[in-house]
Amino acid sequence: MILRFAIPFFITVGFVIVPLLLFLLCRKFLPNKRYGTVLGILLAAIEISLVAYGMTAGFRPLVVRQVEFASADLPAAFDGYRIVQFSDAHVGSMTGSRQEMVQQLIDSVNAQHPDMIVFTGDMQNITPDELIPSMLYFRQLLAYDGVYAVLGNHDYAVYQNCDDTEKANNCLLTKDIIRKMGFDLLLNEHRIIHRDSDSIVVAGMENWGVAERAPKEGDVKKTLTHPSPLTSHLYTIMLQHDPTCWREKILPECNAQLTLSGHTHGGQFSLFGWSPVALTYDEWQGMTYEGDRALYVSTGAGSLIPFRLNQPREIVVITLRKK
Questions:
Q1: CA 142, 148, 152, 156 torsion: positive or negative?
Q2: Do residues 144 and 285 lie in contact, with contact meaning Cβ atoms separated by under 8 Å?
Q3: Which residues in 48-205 belong to E strands, given as ranges?
Q4: Could you tell me which of 173, 159, 165, 89 has the C-alpha nearest to residue 128?
Q5: DSSP 273
Q6: Cβ atoms within 10 Å of 321's Cβ, excluding its own
Q7: How far apart are CA 109 and CA 131, in angstroms?
Q8: Which of 53, 141, 261, 290 has its CA 20 to 30 A from that of 27?
Q9: Quick check: 149 and 183 in contact, CB under 8 A?
């Protein structure tokens, strides 16, 4: 239920509480009351302006990031293979005048001419009915080797104010709509992609996170054996919404060379490359290496609260290279 009030709460904090606190603190702690009043009004005005910008113009830009990942394990036939990743669409926040942002996202992804498209979770904010207006947009996605998706924490109905039976039914509906959008939804399973005589694997785990309310449906071993046993020598790209799973489960339990995640939104705000989300997540943006294995965390293509400041929405073009 609290998520239904997230936007009103954010607006109240951003436009009322924080500006008032800034004004009162300046008045109280600066010895010159007149100077404190002027500075307090100035800081409050700046803060209100930044929040207003972040909820309007700051939320709309979409950047295309180009990333390369080189590995000695990559089969030669896949050298130069292009994967477009996007994450955290939260289409429930792109309605009304923001509906065009969904088309912008689709057009930007297709413009990269990817070999494969992957979506790493959180298509909805709270309920599956949010997805229906965007169904036809996502069916426009095109990639030679397919369009794949995994679920994020928001896609499991855990934040809905209803009984367990209705939550389960809503989760099934979310899965059904995502499939109707044209995605091959991977629920602890994998697909094998072929190029000539070479093959790689795209594997999709269900959500697994360390947070108390995070769905813990992800199963590494099941992902790599369902629908059929997977030989361990195949180069593997793992899709997992929550980046905390990488160190907790993926690194110790399998040999996936590259893991793609989202979830953090990059904090939706950054200052000189740092965001408050860094206090919660060790890996929250960009590429992290652990030996010859890596994790890329996307900052997302949307957000529950339509606000971004110096942390634009993104899609990521990941080019695989043979080392």
A1: positive
A2: no
A3: 62-71, 82-86, 116-119, 147-149, 184-185, 189-195, 198-204
A4: 173
A5: T
A6: 13
A7: 19
A8: 53
A9: yes
Sign of the CA dihedral running 10, 12, 15, 18: negative
Distance CA 260, CA 118 (A): 9
Question: pTM value?
Answer: 0.95
Among residues 94, 172, 189, 162, which one has the least CA distance to residue 134? 94
Q: Where are the alpha helices (DSSP H) in the chain?
A: 6-12, 18-29, 33-55, 100-110, 135-138, 164-180, 220-223, 244-245, 251-253
Average pLDDT along the chain, 323 residues, taken 10 residues at a time: 76 95 93 91 96 96 98 98 98 94 98 98 96 97 98 94 92 98 98 96 97 94 91 92 98 97 97 93 97 98 96 98 95
pLDDT in the model for residue 4:
67
In this structure, what DSSP letter does residue 210 have?
S
